[in-house]
Design brief:
Layout: E1 9-14, E2 27-34, E3 41-43, E4 54-55, E5 60-61, H1 64-73, H2 79-91
Antiparallel strand pairs: 1-2, 2-3, 4-5
Length: 96
């Protein structure tokens, strides 16, 4: 069974060998996911109060920038679709 948690990655910040200056935790792991629109890595914030934007067409989460663009324009393309269109234009010699 597919779970959205199965497509998460993680980011580890390790300051155990640091100089001890500041109040940073010595080692922290964060869950991250990739935005379906721009491929930006987004750190999952468990303290986030507003709902995370989700693309039902691509079954993936979106970053705040892509979600705003979707809300304003009413359309959304995945990163793969944008790159496929660009490749097609380049191959056929069309610009723009």
């Amino acid at each position: 069974m597919f779970s959205k948690r199965s497509i998460e990655g993680y980011l580890m910040r390790d300051h155990r060998a640091g100089d001890g200056i500041g109040d940073m935790q010595p080692m922290v792991e964060y869950a991250i996911y990739t935005c379906c629109g721009c491929q930006r890595g987004i750190i999952r914030n468990p303290k986030r109060e507003r709902e995370r934007s989700y693309c039902r067409a691509h079954d993936r989460y979106m970053c705040d920038d892509c979600a705003l663009s979707f809300k304003v324009t009413g359309s959304h393309k995945s990163y793969k679709q944008v790159m496929d269109e660009y490749e097609s234009k380049v191959i056929h010699g069309r610009s723009g």
